[in-house]
Every structure is written in structure tokens, then in C-alpha cells.
Amino acid sequence: MQKYTIRIQNRQKKKVMHGTYFLYKRQFKCGPVWYYKTYRTDGTITAGKTTGCTAKTAERTYCDNLLKCGLLYIGQNRTFRQYAYGWFDNGSVWMQDRLACGTPDHPALSPAYIEKLRSDLRLYLLPYFGDKKLQDIKHRM
Asked: Are 80 and 122 within 8 A, CB to CB?
């Protein structure tokens, strides 16, 4: 247990801060690989991401370029309403996939069931979860 704690403390010392993100190194059998973590808008830290860079300067350059282009991963910031938009539309991927499971004689989804799904989304899910951010929705809400 103490060995693990020491390793974490040593790892903390190797972090390189850059405002919206920080870099850290992980050691593998093939050598070191640099990772980055970012801060979400609520101040929490995202999961580590890697580009496979083995040099700190290469990782920093890569992250700076992502930041300039607005592509640096900062976690999901979408609302449930944005995420659910078009779920049960006729052309949606989910709908096409489900309908492909049926046959002309026995469709996988009946028109009444499709309407029930749309109605439940519109009447129950969107009013409650609609403006909540996906990252804030927990399984025990």
C-alpha cells in the first residue's frame, strides 16, 4: 500500500501545468508516454488522453495546436435535449437499425410503439432532463 502511495506522489511531481490542461508521463515497458488531462467548465478534471507522444515537448505542441483549433477535449458539455435531438426520427441511425431487424410482414417496431417512444421523450424525458448537462445526469436522479 505504501509503495502505491509513493508512486502517486512521485507522479504528481511530474505534472506540467498549462492553464486549461496539464501533462503527465506514464511509464510502460516500451518507454514513457505522455498524457494530458483538461479541466471541464465546472472545474472537474477529465479522464487522461494520449497522443502516443514519447517526448514532453511533442505532447505540449500537440495540445497547444488542439487548443488553438478549439479541439482540445474538455468533456461533454451538451444538454440532454441536444443529445436526444432526432433520436426517434424516421431517418435516425437508431430507427434505421431497429427497422432493419424486422421483415415487411413483421416490422420490428410498430407505428404505435414508435409514437409512444416519441411521446415519452417529449412529455416526460425532455421536460425533466432537457436542460441538464449530460455530465450532471446521474443514475439516481
From this structure: no
For residue 6, the model assigns a pLDDT of 34
Q: Rounded CA gap, 50 and 73, in Å?
A: 11
Identity of the amino acid at 58: A
Grid cell digits, residue 38: 483538461
In this prediction the pTM is 0.47
Query: Per-residue pLDDT tens for 60-78?
Result: 888 888 878 777 766 656 7
Q: Which residues in the chain come in under a pLDDT of 50? A: 1-14
Residue with cell 433520436: 87
Q: How far apart are the C-alpha atoms of 31 and 26, rounded to whole Å? A: 9
Q: What share of the chain is helix, strand, coil (3-state, %, to 5)?
A: 45, 15, 40
Tell whether the torsion through CA atoms of 67, 73, 74 and 80 is positive or negative: positive
Which of 19, 10, 8 lies closest to 60, judged by CA?
Answer: 19
Whether 134 contacts 83, CB under 8 Å: yes
70: its cell numbers: 478549439
**22: part of which helix (H) or strand (E)?**
strand 21-28
